[in-house]
Prior knowledge:
single chain, mainly beta, 16-stranded antiparallel barrel, 5 helices, 46% strand
Amino acid sequence: MNRTRILLIAVILLTTGGVTKAEDRKKLGVTLDVPYASRHIWQGFNDKLADSGIEVGLGLTNIYQQNVRGGISKHRRAGRLSGSYDLELSVDFQKLLGIEGGSLYVLTEGSWPKTDYDAMSVGSAFGVNGDFAGRRLMDVSELWYEQVMFDSALRIRIGKMDFTGIFDTSAYANDETTQFLNNALINNPTIPFPEYGLGVAGYYSPADFWYLSAAVADAQADVRETGFRTAFHKEDYFFCIFETGITPKLDSGNGPLQGAYRLGLWMDPQPKAHSDASKNYRDDVGFYLSCDQLLAKENSNPEDSQGLGVFGRYGYANSKRNDIANFWSAGFQYRGLFEGRDDDDLGVGFAQGVFSNSADMTYTDDYENVLELYYKAQVRPSLSIGPSVQYVANPGGDKTASDAVVFGVRIQKMF
């Protein structure tokens, strides 16, 4: 832990301030600050880099959680305070080398502590802290090249990447650093996304309102490795996923209301089974549906995102091969609900996972439910503080476990 903090302080002093990111990348969060003079110097340096097509960003996120009712234990302290950092580099090859439509992205991450608070105190099947990743000093989580062609209608990405930022995304429930904390309200647990690993992804938009995307990825990926060993020197297990969707803009008195409606299919060839099984099965397949829709805007400014948006998800997985066979979630986010707090977010979400009937020894109850409410207060353009409360019913699908209530606070700052 001490080595990690020393490294973070050193990185902060040597890196820059601002960062501009692609829509499908995670937003960065920070909890350390540097003197104004240092920020000013490095911000100016970063501006010069940006003119050449190079951008660097640093972020830190700290989360404190406590189980105040039910679950496994209300008194264990291990894992209550967790955090992570993200150090990213993006290169626009058109500006730097004159390669039209080419870009490079590198993401390095670290996190702490080693102990998962959920496993010690709550026992949820979903996980109450989506930002938790264990004790990791420094991992190169993503390193990919993207080529954009035909007026951005076609995008090809190759390298080590995060597939949850490409498929089954959501404008309101897809980022553990700025939105919900519970894993069930970040990603669909019925989709067996590999860890960040090697793969190829493509996106094609034959019309402004319609797109198709697909990817092939190393199913055995390990975020701590480069990916070449598992992708090319072990079993030939490759996770495949296909998604199509429409992105309509509904008319309103305050400008267009953006929406996205998705249908996806996936296939995982690895041998696996539910927790009670004695036999493994190959070629797991499933499908999912998801949507998000802005329902109301407060004004007609196209750059202003104040208003009410809703989201929903559904996923199906084979009950012989998976513990969670059916899943659904729904909720909303309102930006700028209170007067004078135009950049604050209020979010409410509900999720339910239905366990496999064949795994009734491991899961004595049929389902786990979670209800989460969070508020993100934008204190400064680069600093946000937000409380969260989660109600977890039937944690871990255990009839003997009491429903849990978990309070949390998330603090971020963006450099």
